[in-house]
Each structure stands twice: as structure tokens, then as C-alpha cells.
Amino acid sequence: MARIRVGRPDVRPDAPSHVRGIREGNEPGGYEKTPGLRPDGTATARRSTGINPGARDPIDPSMPNLPPA
Amino acid sequence: MVQNLSQSAGQETRELVEMSWDPITRIIGNLGIHTKIDFANREVVECRSTSSLFRGYSVFMKGKDPRDAHFITSRICGICGDNHATCSVYAQNMAYGVKMPHLAEWIVNLGEAAEFMFDHTIFQDNLVFVDFCEQMVKETNPSLLHRAENTAAPRSDEHGHRTIADIMRAFNPFTGGMYREALQMSRLTREMFCLMEGRHVHPSTLYPGGVGTVATPQLFSDYLARLLKVLDFVKKAVPMNDDLFDFFYAALPGYEEVGRRRIMLGCWGAFQNPDVVDYTYRNMPEWGRKQFVTPGIIVDGELVTNSLVDINVGIRILLGSSYYDDWENDGEVFVTRDPLGNPIDRRHPWNQTTIPRPQKRDLGEGGKYSWVMSPRWLDPRTGDLLALDTGGGPLARLWSTALNGLVETDLIRATGHSVKITLPKSEGSPEKHLEWHIPKWSNTIERDRARVYFIAYAAAAAFHFVTQAMDEVRAGRTKVFQDFAVPDDAIGCGFHEAVRGVLSHHLVIRDGKIANYHPYPPTPWNASPRDVHGTPGPYEDAVQGLPIFEENGPENFKGIDIMRTVRSFDPCLPCGVHMYLGGGRTLKRLHSPTLGAGA
């Protein structure tokens, strides 16, 4: 590092990183555990709601399942 | 600042006036342009570009969680932060070994296309054209304006302005029609961006492995509805730009020399093709070539390479006029060979150590005067370290895409010598065909002209992306994220295009943390000072030797031709240009070519 005067750091450089024990969004298996996401990359109404999701899936199984945001 | 200098060399005496424009704000740091002008011969003799602000991203990224990299580096820039986020995501994808789902790639491409449309529009119409508008031309070149009043616009049936002066009036700040319409467009295009990446300009839904955007038919319909409105504007803007720039060539013979430099352009490519991209270093040349903007290095009009591995291996970061200590002897070497076995130089970003050394600015010969380093590219054919420029971004992108001739979609076709762009029928205008031809020069006018064509290019590309994304959604494939683990040790590099040109992020991970991180945005390439070998950076090179067409003398000189040249490189929103023309002091500098004679 340069020979320049700097102040005392308030936090360690890696302070915003992961806190042990908390689930990480990127961790392998996260996709499979998320309700409503299927292994083939499609989704069901369960992705959008937990309230009676089966009734909100398309009436014809051949239709694409496009749950709202 | 004005200083009068007399230089006499033998019989020849040159009256040089020192003029400085400092700061030209809101680039990465503060840009200053310091020149020596020979008013008698109407020529800029010498130019130095300086930056007076140190950022230090490469210093404080060390030790952080690599998954934070795109959020932090996005803050490098307040206008193209998303380009940094995207580039960082690309570098992280390589380091983590993760491939994004197709739909996520299309969403990122759509966001980036909206960013190109937004940024180029606001820069071109609200900032660049202030230098070409009626009010400015009246102050700098009154006779040119007189001629513009009497020159019919050749493409008036396409844009509705009768004379060239009418076009100039349309760009008058705050009152001109195009100026105000461009502001509306920048709002629309930012909305398009936010639909895809969550927030402008620091995306909130962009991550390594994919995006957090929830893909629904509504999302893409909203994007498409706005895109169609933008098309009406673009179809008008392109012919207006062509008319105005053609007029400058015709009315001011020799204007092609303004801002002209040797053709040394770099483009790192943009818009990934999800069918091919796997983010592996080994396959990088292949997926790099399949991007919808083809990467390439063009020297003297010839394509030297379009391989991202060649581009990566050839990057060198030189010092010379920068406020840093060299790391050549005591810096840590992180990467000795890339994953293909190519040796990696100590001056490569993977091995760079930033050691700032603040000091007084010295604009004299051999002095240090800038916080910008001097990125160069090693030409393997000649061994030259080339000071590549980006042509403001669009010039290099279109040039490389045209020359490579690899891009072909329903609406875009690269021919080898031009790029053909089709803009579909929109609310207020029929289908329009545009063709951008490789120009004869890399100069101020062509950098500016390419910008408006690239807005059209980005719009046409966005049509392709939105169609592909809709196909994915209609098939029910709504997956937008791929999970991954962070390795303990890895390296990665991301290559992308920021709006104003080449962008690379180089990343080294050790113990799950960032050990080294070096982003190289376009402005270090363009605004670099003289390197250790004395090679001037592109701004300096383009301004040195620039002929002056401004009609004002030294007393009320605005430096419009110099400002047009610097702005043609798109130095990150130079909207805060201040020019100080104080009283100055007169010096006498004598130079005698004969050893021992004279004083």
C-alpha cells in the first residue's frame, strides 16, 4: 500500500460479507428448495402464491404456466 | 488560464498561448485539458489531459466478498454503473463457473440495450449538440451559421427541418425541439432499463448466475411499447445528424482533420448470445465472437484480432505520467499463466498493485500530471504498445461489428464494410432502413455520427432480444437464476462495453475473498496521459495538431473545436465544462538549436 496517511478503519474490509448460519441466495440447492420452481426451468402458480395455488394453474396442462410476479 | 509563450527555433518563431479547460467534470475523476495554441497558424501544438481525482476501487475491493463486487463497482459511474455491474457479473460468472439461463441473458441484454439508447441520446442531443447548436455556432462561427441559414437540409422530408440552421435551432438548449424531445426519450429508455434491471443506474436485480427480474409477458410488453415510441425519435434523429455533420464537412473544408488520429480502435463486445456463452476462459474467443456486438482491435483500418483471449493477454497498464509508484519489482504476482497456458505479464490487470503517490501536478516535460494510468495493448505483430481509443464507444463498436461481418439478425446485418439496420414500423413512421458505412477517418465528426447510429443499432438489437425472450416465456421457461458455490481460489475476467467504450473487470479470489480486482473502463484508455515511452493518450493525440476553425481570436476564444473533440470521446458527461481565461502572464521561452549559441 502507498505511503500515505490514512485514518483508522471503522470496519474490516469484509464486513458486509456472509454471516455464518444465514442462508445464502446463491447456495447450491436453493433453486430446488424454492416453492413453485420446477427442475426443467418452468414454474407453477405456487411461485406467486401459497393460497390455493393449484386452482390458479392453467386449466389445460399443455398451456404454459405463467404465474404473475 | 492564458499564458503567452514565444518559441523560437532557428528562423521560425511560434507565438504559443497556453489555454486550459480544467475541470471538465464528471468523468471518472476530474478531467482537465491543458493546451498550447498557435493562433497565427491556427493550430493546437501541444495537449495534456489530466485527472485530479483518485478513486481507489482497486485498493478497497481487496478482502471483500466477491459476491458484492457488482454492487460496489456499479458505483464507479453515475451514468453507466449498470455496465460495470454487468461486466462484474460476467467476471464473477467465470470465476464461479456458472452459466446463466437463457432468459436471464436476454433480460440483461435488454437492460443494456436500453442503457445504450438512454445514455447515447442524452449525451448526444443534450450535451454534444450544445457545441453544434445555433446559439453556439453564432458565437464561434457566425459566417458558418449564415451559410447554414441558406443551405437546405437534404433529408428534410425525413426529419421535417427545412434548413441546416433549423436543425441547429432544434438543438438549442432548453428551447430547441430535439433537445426537449431527447429528455423525454431519456425518461422512456430509463423506464425500459428499470423494467429489466430494477433500478437505474445501479441495478438491483442483477446477480452472478442470473437476474432477480420476474419474467412475465407483461414485462416484455411494457418494454416493447416504450421501444416503439423511441423508434419514432430515432428515425428522425439519424437523418438530422447526417445532414448536420455532412454540412460541416462541406462548409468547412478540412474539418475532417479536427480530432483526427490514427485508426487504433478497441471494442470488447457486448450483448451475449445465450446459445453459446458458457463463461469459460477456454471458450472465450468463440462466445466472444458470437456476441451481438463483435469484439475487435482495429489498427489502420485492419482487424488485428477478434479473440477476447488475445485481447486479454495483450493488455498492459503503464505508468509514466501518473501519480503512482510502480509495482513491477515489489508487487505480488497473482496470475503467471492464464487457464490456456499463456503467460500473463506483471503489467496485466490481474497482476496490478495500485500504489498511489499523491504529488504536485507537473505539466512539464517528463512530469507527472494525472491520476489516470496509461492502459495500452501490445500488438503481437509489431511489439508496439498501442494507445487504443474507443471512438467514444459507438465508432469502435460499429467498426468492429462491420469489419467482422458476423452479426446477423432479422433487423441487423454486418456486411464486412457496413452495418445495415432496419427499424420496424412504429406509431408515427414507416419501416426505415439505415446503413452505417466504415468512415475514412477516426475523427470528431465520425465519433459523433456513429453515436446516433448506435442508438438505432441498440433499438434493432432490442427487438431481437425481446422476441427471443418472449419465445422463452411463451414456452413456460421462466427460470432466470442458476445457483452456484463460491470457490476458495479462482480467477475471472469480464469483457463488456460501457456506453463510451471498452470495459473489463479482472478478478482474483483467494480464500473466498477478493485478492485483486481491477476494473478498466473506457476513460482510462481515452484520457490516459503520456506513458513511460512518451506515447500520448488518445485525447492528447487527437487534440495535438488540431486545426482551429473557430473565428474568435485569443481574447474571446471558446476552444469549440477542442471541446468538440474531447466530447466526441464521450468523457462521461462533460456537462460541467468551465473555462477560465484569466489575465495570465507573459513569458518568453527561447530555444536555440545550436549547441552553446544564444541563450
UniProtKB/TrEMBL annotation, chain A:
Region (Disordered): 1-69
Domain of life: Bacteria
Comp. bias intervals (Basic and acidic residues): 7-26
Annotated protein name in UniProt: Uncharacterized protein
Originating species: Actinomadura craniellae
TrEMBL record, chain B:
Binding of Ni(2+), residues: 77, 80, 572
Residue stretches spanning the membrane: none
Molecular functions per Gene Ontology: nickel cation binding
Leader peptide range in chain numbering: none
Superkingdom of the source species: Bacteria
Residue sites binding Mg(2+) per the record: 578
Cofactor: Ni(2+); Fe cation
Keyword terms of this UniProt record: Iron, Magnesium, Metal-binding, Nickel
Residues engaged in binding Fe cation: 80, 575
Name the record gives this protein: Hydrogenase
